Amino acid sequence: MTTGTTPKFTRRRTTTIAATAALAVAVPFAAGTPAFAGPNFPSTEGKTNISSIVDFDGLVAELDRIERTSRFDVEVQTLAEVGTAVSMSEQGRDLYVATVGDGPEAVWLQGRIHGNEPYGTESLLSVLKELGTNGSPEWKLLRETYTFHVIPMYNPDGSELNIRHTILQDGSAQRIDLNRDWGVGKFAAAESEAFYEYWTMVDPAFAIDIHHQGLKREYGTGDDVTFSLGISLAPGGPTLPGIEGGAYDVLTRQMQVHVFDELSKYGYVNIDRYQVGGSLEIDIKGGVVSAMMLGLDHDGLNPEGHSNPAIFFETSGNTSDGSLGQKARGKSIKQNVLALQELLVGMATGEVQAEDASRWDEIPHAPVTGYQTDNGVIPIGY
């Protein structure tokens, strides 16, 4: 891994990418992923094998391997090497980023901000490997269009403890949800300070965050949901329409409509919209991708008010509930890889920007009754 070098930062705002001919998308497989099994996606039997999940040492080893074997200059660094003021986790672990690509716009890909939601790490390692080694036209286009900043394990402490949170080391032992810690008066955790500063250095054009959720059934059918599509500031809700003249309200829906259409072609993926409490859209401002869209200026590090659109994916099941199901492992990782690849190529070709944003309402969901905010529920018709 490189030491003391400067990452490939870009200071450009989001622009509309000129459309090119539509490209057929090859499907990469996660390294070491077992063959897919039809049933048990996901399992409720509590048989998740934690020892099979990539841990922190495994992450470091895999990043090193990807960097050494890459054909297209994957660069792996710790935030200490990047030079952020805070650069390690609460428990003193290095925080890793990997960059690849020479494009004029930066893309931020992050996973495992919650330690019990593991497959973001493995999905992003799979995508990073393809970006570093795959010479096909699709991956070449992505490297030429974007510079990728990949954070496969945002929360290494929680990952090692198999818990959602990180734990403060200031003597309080307080558990902090890192995805509620980017906000005014917040930034309690070292990881939040570190990655926020890195975000202000990168100024990405857009961001994608990979999560897990609990076991879920589709509204109206009762079918098991394997994958949910989320926007953390609700489209048409109290906040998003007022950002950038409504541009993010449109583009984030276009992004998820594109993912929905492309992944619906695969019979083992059943998709709906992410909701909480049965019928509420989230409109939280303390989440990382929410703060990105809001252009949060913390500690004077973002005086120009950079902001960027961002979305998230949710795979069903997590490790602390024991609900991932070992037989579902390959499918759970692959649906993330497919979603990332389809979305990134769609953004690069302009297909996403041509989608009908109103079709967000066609993605299966319960009738919306309100918005879950940081300060409680706002009913429809507020």
In terms of topology, how is this protein built?
Blueprint: H1 56-69, E1 75-78, H2 79-82, E2 96-100, E3 105-111, H3 119-133, H4 137-145, E4 146-151, H5 156-161, E5 166-167, E6 175-176, H6 190-202, E7 206-213, E8 227-230, H7 247-263, E9 271-273, E10 280-283, H8 288-294, E11 310-316, H9 329-349, E12 370-373, E13 376-379
Parallel strand pairs: 3-4, 3-7, 7-11, 8-9, 10-12
Antiparallel strand pairs: 1-2, 2-4, 5-6, 8-11, 12-13
Helix pairs in contact: 1-3, 3-9, 7-9
Subcellular location: Secreted
Family: Belongs to the peptidase M14 family.
Cofactor: Zn(2+)
Jot down its keywords.
3-stranded mixed β-sheet; 9 helices; protease; 382 residues; Aminopeptidase; disordered N terminus; single chain; alpha/beta
Order of the strands making up the biggest sheet: 1-2-4-3-7-11-8-9
Low-confidence stretches: 2-40
The amount of beta strand, in percent, is 15-25%
Number of strands: 13
**Quick one: overall form?**
globular
Q: Specify the structural class.
A: alpha/beta
Order of helices and strands: HEHEEHHEHEEHEEHEEHEHEE
CATH architecture: 3-Layer(aba) Sandwich
The CATH topology comes to Aminopeptidase
CATH class: Alpha Beta
Mean pLDDT: 88
The rounded Rg comes to: 19 Å
Main location: secreted
Subcellular location: Secreted
Domain Peptidase M14: 52-382
Signal peptide: 1-37
